[in-house]
Structures are given as structure tokens and as C-alpha cells.
Amino acid sequence: MFLHIVFLLSLLSSTSHATVQDFCVADLKGADTPSGYPCKPPANVTSDDFVYTGLAEAANVTNIINAAVTPAFVAQFPGLNGLDLSAARLDLGPGGVIPLHTHPGANELLIVLQGHILAGFISSGNIVYQKVLKKGELMVFPQGLLHFQIAVGKRKALAFPVFSSAFPGLQILDFALFASNFSTPLVTQTTFLDPAIVKKLKGVLGGSG
């Protein structure tokens, strides 16, 4: 028994002085790799690296979708590096819409702070799950599934999405189809849309082909 106690005490003594890496604040001057940015030297880390104020102000929503998304990803908020976490601010003017899109690298949790937002996603079984969310309500969007948000009524809306990755990724369906060089014949063939509609939408969103 005495030997067991001595062994445990020696083990605790050897591990208590081991270095634990609590965080890895991104050195944005380094290369962005699939595993993240390199760490800033600990001596150069300050409290400001763990605080981000960029979501405090409303964004300009004067655009085709009457909405704006302000990111707080690792490129804006270096303290997120390696934590598998990020956020954004979602400003919606009256009737504003975030078109169908997907985040291939993260789940999303939407927190509504102002107004009413019709939000929903489409499952891989082609079932639509949607709900009008009010202040204080949340909705989750599973990773990789198409989803959307629309401001309901004549009021502006505000929400904060939180992601399960510092690099959630983004692909907007309408932009992929109509703001790219995906040719009109191929879009027509793969979506069954009328060529005239495809060309019209490409004209609106700036696509070619």
C-alpha cells in the first residue's frame, strides 16, 4: 500500500508541472491551413485577443436581399482559433431575406434578438422544417443542410448565428447557380428551369455563360 501511495504522489508531482496549452490565438500573419492558423507567441497575447466588438453595430442592408451578415470568424476574431466556435450578426430589413444556403463545415444555432424571423431548413429527405421565431427564441440548422431566414412583417429583425466551427464555410444556392459561370444550358438541364428565367436571374446576379 505504501508503495502505491508513493507512486501516486510521484505521478501527481510529475504531471502538475506539465505545460497545458489553454489556447492558440491566431497569428494572422501566418498561413491559414486546414488545421487553423499558427499560434501567436504567448508573450504577445493580450485580453483584447479574446474580445471582439465588431458585431455591436448594425450593418447596411441596402442591397438586393435587404439583409447583411457580419462575420466573427477566426480571421476577424483571432481568439477563436482552434476552439471550433464562431459567430455572426444577421441584420434583416423589413422583408429581408437570407437565401437558401449551406454551411458545409458547421452546425448553426440562430438566436433571435429583435423582430420576427421565419427560419427553416430542408432535410436530406426533402422535408421542410420551419418556424417563425420571436425575440429570445432559438433554432438549430444541422451541418450541410440548406436553410434560410426571412424577416416577417414590416419590422427589421436582428439575430446572432453561432457556429460549431471557426471555419463554417458558406455556399448560397442562388449565387452558385446564377452569379457564377455555370452555363445556362447546364443550369437548365440540371434544374429544369426555363432558359429565359436562368438568363434573367444571371442578369440580376451578375453570372455568365
Automatic annotation (TrEMBL):
<feature type="binding site">
    <location>
        <position position="103"/>
    </location>
    <ligand>
        <name>Mn(2+)</name>
    </ligand>
</feature>
<dbReference type="InterPro" id="IPR006045">
    <property type="entry name" value="Cupin_1"/>
</dbReference>
<keyword id="KW-0732">Signal</keyword>
<feature type="signal peptide">
    <location>
        <begin position="1"/>
        <end position="18"/>
    </location>
</feature>
<dbReference type="GO" id="GO:0030145">
    <property type="term" value="F:manganese ion binding"/>
</dbReference>
<keyword id="KW-0325">Glycoprotein</keyword>
<keyword id="KW-0964">Secreted</keyword>
<comment type="similarity">
    <text>Belongs to the germin family.</text>
</comment>
<dbReference type="InterPro" id="IPR014710">
    <property type="entry name" value="RmlC-like_jellyroll"/>
</dbReference>
<dbReference type="Pfam" id="PF00190">
    <property type="entry name" value="Cupin_1"/>
</dbReference>
<feature type="domain" description="Cupin type-1">
    <location>
        <begin position="53"/>
        <end position="199"/>
    </location>
</feature>
<feature type="binding site">
    <location>
        <position position="103"/>
    </location>
    <ligand>
        <name>oxalate</name>
    </ligand>
</feature>
<feature type="disulfide bond">
    <location>
        <begin position="24"/>
        <end position="39"/>
    </location>
</feature>
<feature type="binding site">
    <location>
        <position position="147"/>
    </location>
    <ligand>
        <name>Mn(2+)</name>
    </ligand>
</feature>
<feature type="binding site">
    <location>
        <position position="101"/>
    </location>
    <ligand>
        <name>Mn(2+)</name>
    </ligand>
</feature>
<dbReference type="GO" id="GO:0000326">
    <property type="term" value="C:protein storage vacuole"/>
</dbReference>
<keyword id="KW-0464">Manganese</keyword>
<feature type="binding site">
    <location>
        <position position="108"/>
    </location>
    <ligand>
        <name>oxalate</name>
    </ligand>
</feature>
<keyword id="KW-0052">Apoplast</keyword>
<keyword id="KW-0675">Receptor</keyword>
<protein>
    <recommendedName>
        <fullName>Germin-like protein</fullName>
    </recommendedName>
</protein>
<dbReference type="InterPro" id="IPR001929">
    <property type="entry name" value="Germin"/>
</dbReference>
<keyword id="KW-1015">Disulfide bond</keyword>
<keyword id="KW-0479">Metal-binding</keyword>
<dbReference type="InterPro" id="IPR011051">
    <property type="entry name" value="RmlC_Cupin_sf"/>
</dbReference>
<dbReference type="GO" id="GO:0005783">
    <property type="term" value="C:endoplasmic reticulum"/>
</dbReference>
<dbReference type="GO" id="GO:0048046">
    <property type="term" value="C:apoplast"/>
</dbReference>
<feature type="binding site">
    <location>
        <position position="108"/>
    </location>
    <ligand>
        <name>Mn(2+)</name>
    </ligand>
</feature>
<dbReference type="InterPro" id="IPR019780">
    <property type="entry name" value="Germin_Mn-BS"/>
</dbReference>
